[in-house]
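Worked problem 6 (solution included).
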Amino acid sequence: MAIKGRFALITGAASGMGLEIAKLFASEGAIVACCDINSCDHVVDIIQSSGGTAKAFTFNARDKFDIQRLAKEVLEWTGNMLDILINNAGVSSVVMLDGDDDTYEATWDFVFDINVRAQQRLSRALLPQLLASEFSGRIVNVASTEGLGATIFNSAYVASKHASVGLTKAMAVELGSRGVTVNCVCPGPVRTGMTKDILENQKELFAKRLVPMRRYGNPAEIAYMHLALVDDRATFTNGCVVNVDGGILANNALLPMRLPWEKKKVPRSSSRL
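Solution. The predicted structure is:
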């Protein structure tokens, strides 16, 4: 239990990956501030029922003053201490480059406020405590495989995730010599709120065609990578961008290859999803 007794703040903790990260960290002995625009009371109940320690906080990731308020309230609860920050809160978007000007601009601002600005604002608000941690301070920014590539009708989201990757590297270079490591996790296709509206047959087809593991990931699988990056023994891991994507970015194939041990034929198509 390498993070036992550590104070951790996790954004986007009400559901999906954030919820699983909070549960996992608490099970490893961390004291967890569960933060989201939605209530995290149910997450705290789960953690406390298993003997862990956590408290729920609400905040608006788009509002810089609310981020400052959140930081103040969390630090009051922890006794002005913080060891781990997980910048997981995020939103997705679908918008065309030649779409309506007002809609496109509003979408761009919305996505960047939450996916990028909130990460740097919360990191800055909590930096004194992370620098003062008696352990090595840890920051993990959550981006996406879209931060290393791109898909159609997704320019605002793709740009924001590339920005999150760049922010991580810049922070790692600046803070590494001061005892704080900063790393980035890039999940691939995962069963979260962002993907819940995708039909199951579309998920299955996409995974069979492009994901070497032939499936979507589960939030708990992403959580374990976060645990590895905040472990006290991860002392030389800084500025890394880690894919947790079932191998999708390693796959050059546009069409699936039937492997010898796969009995069923994989649907073939000439077009990508």
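Discussion: The beta strands are 7-11, 31-36, 53-58, 84-87, 137-142, 180-187, 241-244.
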